[in-house]
Amino acid sequence: MKPRRLTSLSRQRRWALRGSYAALAVFVVLFLVPPFHMFVTSLKTSAEISGQAANPWLVQHPTLRNYIELLANEHYRGFFLNSIKITVVVVAVSMAISILAAFSLARMRFWGSGVLAAGVFLTYLVPDSLLFIPFFQIVGKLGLINNTWGMLIVYPTLAVPFCTWIMIGYFSSIPKELDEAALIDGASWLQILFKIFIPVAMPGIIAAAIFAFTVSWGQFIYPLAYLYSADQMVLTVGIISELIRADVFEWGKIMAGSLMAAAPPVIIYAFLMDYYVSGLTAGATKG
Amino acid sequence: MTLTRRTALRTAAAAAALPLVHIRSAGAAGKLTLGLWDHWVPAGNGAMKKIIDAWAEKNKVEVGIDFITSVGNKNLLTIAAEAQSKTGHDVEAFPAWEILNNQQNLEPVDDVVEGLIKQYGAVNPVNEYLSKVGGHWMAVPSSSGTQYKPSCARISVFKNAGADVQAWFPARAEHSALADQWTWDKLLELAPQAQKAGLPFALGLGQTTDSVDFVGALFRSFGAQMVNEKGEVSVKSDTVRQALEYMAKLTKFLPPDVFSYDDASNNRALISGKAGMIFNPPSAWAVAKRDNPSVAADCWTFPTPAGPKGRFVPYLPYFWGIWSFSKNKSAAKDLLTHLAQREQVEALSTAVSGYDIPPFLAMADLKVWEQVEPPLGTVFNYPIRPFHNATPSIAALPAPPDIAVQIYNRATMTTMVAKMTQGGQSMEQVLAWAQDELEGFMR
Amino acid sequence: MSAATATLPTRIRPQAGRFTRIWRRRSTAAVLMCLPLILLLLLLVVYPAAYAIYLAMLNKRMTAFVGMGNFVFLLKRATFHLVIFQSCLFAVSAVIAKASIGFTLAHLMHVIPPNRQRLLRGLLLIPWVVPLALSTLGWWWLFDPSYSAFNWILDGIGVPQVAWLGNTGWARFSMILVNTWYGSPFFMIMYLAALKSVPHELFEAAAIDGASAWQKLRFVTLPMMRNIISITVLFSLIVTFADFTIVRILTAGGPQDTTHIFATYAFEVGIQSGDIPLGAAVSLFMLPILAVASFFILRGVMRRNREMAAG
């Protein structure tokens, strides 16, 4: 009786596995339709796109010209550098703010800490489409309109709440005995944070940092509103303002530029994926 | 009553804000930053920069130029940012309605514009409507980016339907008797044939400028007013009904997705060889020349059709305004005066294959429109010429500008057409909706 | 720290001691560590939000205070009723779609051994990783009336072409589709993380007891995941409600205003038509709707947390 049941279980499992692979493959195909079409378009010349002679899902005369011309374009390279520059700094600043705050909220408690922990998430209730008008004044007073660094003021509002929330969850999952023992040994709170919590919480930190990266790399409204000269723009807004001229769209280049702009996050996810999932596992579920 | 009081107040406020008379002889010096329109023709920015650099050199002014795109309304966001934070460029390029929206933050430029009018004669009346507030010019009408949106048709499509557009509007400075055939009724007569030939007229009914401008011109040539010049809602009128009825008939022969058109959709339809005509400046033709040359060689640009009340061609200007927080207003005024001179206007317009329309009517004879090809003379009739018997117009005129700006930007007219044709509502439902919507604009 | 205090000269020790004492007092240190966050929230969220509320109470030219005038005005406009309806329709259907697809994907993925998930996970995450403004441009291109590659396929199989963005129904469908495409991977990854935290023994036990797949889902997985589902749904609901990019790029609100949502309508009213106070008022309408949703969702989360802590 027992052995038969096990074989049927394992057979069941094998079928479930095959079914999952098949279903996921279907989803992969569906999800990748737009990126695939973007890729195909990026290999076409403007003439081939306008001509519409053949199947739009295939290329007649593939060319890398769009990519080469973009890489040779000083502005495009500048957008890329600006995006990297501002994203790296925003991630660092956001993580510093989030880690300190999350540690304090998860472990130390003070008057109002409960409200703050719950409330931090609610800052998303104030949408960026509302904030960007008041930000005109704040960014303007600081003299940072049309300055890539102005984004350093506004991007953390998007990243910090989620990162703090993930980190509170992660820190809460660390056994209390660990810091209590350290406290008895005379360690200060900062020592506990840096010597114990940060190393242990690395997956959570990476997960939160990836989130901050994704958000600041892809932000659209703020740079659209505040950056207007080519030397200050980031990729999202740069591609749109450089490659679309009034009613003329250079589709091949737009697609090539977008795909190249998507490359850094894709690479980062490819390498850090395992941390991302395990970081979220501990962080998000305990929140 | 309220209107007169408001106008009076505004005049008083503007007069109080008027600074001491600008002294031309003071000469320019110091620093000047400009936020200009990023021209769709790449050569446009270069030509502009060359002219400004030469002026800066001569006048010992340090000039910084940013070319700001209108894609994604980026220029509007920049204008809002600078108006809100009271910092930024000295001179900014403002699209049509933005002078009215930013009047409290702009420096009056009566001296500059009056001087130019003395020099070159009348300015396009739409400019006055859009930038003269309480009797004061709040900005200098610019040529850069200023456009008409006449008919741009495929010669062969019209020919197959029995209409010779090159005979209607030849590339010669003369009125052809045939030109009078080009009416909205004629367009309605040709539309089904073009559709049958697989090249329908790609006339947008979306919510962006190309769509609004075309329907606005149609309304005007039917004498249909949404709100009259006194600021009273006048949408429930026979002329509006006639215009809507006409559009209901026409829409049947347009592509099904015209309701989602933006300013680029009609261009793409033409360039891809799928449209018999569009209402657009020659930008679509210029791209076709690059990407689909056989289509470009088959294009002819000429005024919009005439209606019972005349021929109205959509006109969408740009302005150069000086922010009231600018630190160097006298240099800014000198530069704007320089840029508006015929020599500069001609150089700029020539650099962009004639896309730019000079604000002064007397400048409608630049050589560039005769020279551009293929086919030779294709944009000869792009600017309104005296023998066209046409009037430049902007949608929602003659409503008071404060109300018109909302009719225009909220695309009330195209929405009415869409509600009736695509949405299947009755004429009276649509008029009731419009009445309510327009009353909302009176606030 | 204590070692440092011990070596300090006696003269300043009391002072240093007081400082150390204050620092070592939990709450002071805690507040200091939270200070950057608190400052960020106050200066860059609370203050601008308050300013926006003030702005929303001014007249069009920002010269007079009109109190609730703008809100009352909006509530009387038929177009604005449409915007409220559409925002809810858009956000609710997109979130339901994203949550269901994400849930399905996470479950399918969970069946596969972790070391072989990497490639599939990576490919499925691509929609979430590409900057939204740029991928939406890619979608727009697929929907374009003259060049639509979708319509080319429809032509090929003899189905009439679809005006993807030109017809109210299809335009609404398209924007929900793009948002779902973009957001599903995020749900997948969050749920996958949650699934991993469900102790494996629970599934084994259920399997040995002969529980069906549905029973496992109903009695093991769902109860364990309820909090993460709630939080993810709430986060997504807020972000989807506030979406600007997708609708702005795809339809800009058309046809006939039937795809406008709060953010795009606020942009059209505030920036395009030059009525910034009214635009701010439009954006502010999101707040009460979302606050109510947050209240209920977070209350549930906290109650379950308390039950868990008690149990």
Description of the molecule:
The complex is a heterotrimer of chains A (287), B (443) and C (311). Chain A is mainly α and 287 residues long. Chain A is 78% helix and 1% strand. Chain A has helices at residues 2-31, 33-42, 46-51, 65-72, 74-108, 113-122, 128-141, 151-154, 156-172, 176-184, 189-200, 202-218, 221-226, 235-243, 251-286; strands at residues 244-245, 248-249. In chain A, a hairpin with a 2-residue loop joins strand 1 (244-245) and strand 2 (248-249). Chain B is built from 20 helices and twelve strands. Mean pLDDT of chain B is 89; it is low at 1-26. In chain B, the strands form three sheets. In chain B, strands 1, 2, 3, 6, 10, 11 and 12 form a seven-stranded mixed sheet that branches. Chain B is 44% helix and 14% strand. By secondary structure, chain C is mainly alpha-helical. In chain C, helix 6 packs across helix 9. Classes of the chains: A mainly alpha (287), B alpha/beta (443), C mainly alpha (311). At the A-C interface, helix 1, helix 2, helix 5, helix 6 and helix 7 of A face helix 3, helix 5, helix 6, helix 7 and helix 8 of C.
Principal-axis shape of chain A: flat
The helix-and-strand class of chain A reads mainly alpha
The largest beta-sheet of chain A arranges its strands as 1-2
Integer average pLDDT of chain C: 84
The string of secondary-structure elements of chain A, in order, is HHHHHHHHHHHHHHEEH
CATH architecture level-2 label of the largest domain in chain A:
Orthogonal Bundle
How far the N terminus sits from the C terminus of chain C, by CA atoms, comes to 39 Å
At the first level of CATH, what is the class of the largest domain in chain A? Answer: Mainly Alpha
Average pLDDT level of chain A: 86
Annotation field: number of helices of chain C? 15
Low-pLDDT segments, ≥5 res of chain A: none
Give me the count of strands of chain C: 0
Instruction: State the helicity of chain A in percent bands.
Output: over 70%
Short description:
The complex is a heterotrimer of chains A (287), B (443) and C (311). In chain A, 78% of the residues lie in helices and 1% in strands.
Protein topology:
The complex is a heterotrimer of chains A (287), B (443) and C (311).
Chain A: H1 2-31, H2 33-42, H3 46-51, H4 65-72, H5 74-108, H6 113-122, H7 128-141, H8 151-154, H9 156-172, H10 176-184, H11 189-200, H12 202-218, H13 221-226, H14 235-243, E1 244-245, E2 248-249, H15 251-286
Antiparallel strand pairs in A: 1-2
Helix pairs in contact in A: 2-15, 4-15, 5-6, 5-9, 5-12, 5-14, 6-9, 9-12, 9-15, 12-15, 14-15
Chain B: H1 2-17, E1 30-37, H2 42-59, E2 61-68, H3 74-85, E3 91-95, H4 98-101, H5 110-120, H6 125-131, E4 132-133, E5 136-137, E6 140-148, E7 151-154, H7 155-160, H8 165-168, H9 184-196, H10 209-221, H11 238-251, H12 265-271, E8 277-279, H13 283-291, H14 293-296, E9 299-302, E10 306-307, E11 310-322, H15 329-339, H16 342-351, H17 368-371, E12 390-393, H18 401-409, H19 412-421, H20 427-440
Chain C: H1 2-7, H2 13-24, H3 26-55, H4 69-76, H5 78-111, H6 118-129, H7 132-143, H8 149-156, H9 168-197, H10 200-208, H11 213-241, H12 245-250, H13 262-272, H14 276-284, H15 286-310
